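Project channel, design review

CF: Before we commit to the Fibrocapsa japonica constructs, I'd like one complete example in the thread so the newer folks can see what an input/output pair looks like. Taking FAD/NAD(P)-binding domain-containing protein.
RD: sounds good, go ahead.
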Amino acid sequence: MIVGGGPVGLELAGEIFAAYPDKKVTIVHSHANLLNNSQPPLSSKFTARMLKLVEQMGATVILDDRVNVNLEELDANNMIVNSTTYTTGKGERVEADLLVWCVGTSSTNLKLYRDSGWESSLCSGHLKCTKYLQVEGVGDGKIFALGDIADTGATKMMYHAGEQAKIVAKNLVLLEQGKGLKPYPVPKKGTMIVPLGPKGGAGDIGITILGSGMTSKIKGQDLFTKKVKKDLLGL
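CF: and here is what came back for FAD/NAD(P)-binding domain-containing protein:
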């Protein structure tokens, strides 16, 4: 059972079915629509397409419901490896030998930020930022945040983190030079590419919906691992 119908949960389901086509997979999502946490929101056409593709793949999808899980039982990989019958908030029973927790969580160590006097800068477990990606209320504007730790108005995705890193790098130089900073252009449309295994999935790029072929070519074959190696390691 996969708890969470965001991109991580759906991509994991796709990889499982690609490796084990006969495996039974149940996805439990607390919202009425999959992929609902995107900022800005994704198109309803895309989220409906993803639901259809996931169900065609063979997964059972339970929407607008939650699983009663003791989070202290999760291991270091956010999993519970144990044959158990779980009960959802609405009373549905799901048998599973493996539970994978794919729910978005706070990106910050609350104790660390509380001890550092930064608690007032937190927003739902993320650091509040100015439009220049400076952390609000601390460091006299000399501390910046980006990626999963930052409340930027953009979805927590590698692509957006990369764009934010470019802004932060530029602003560090401008700050040192005593010049005006460059604002981070928050995306106006929700975009996301969600492969379901190496050959399936779909993508919403704002102006159109990508089919499985293009989704596979762009991301499905390697899940951007080659791009990350090139960007971070120069390989």
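RD: helpful, thanks. The longest strand covers residues 79-87.
CF: The CA atoms of residues 81 and 98 lie 5 Å apart.
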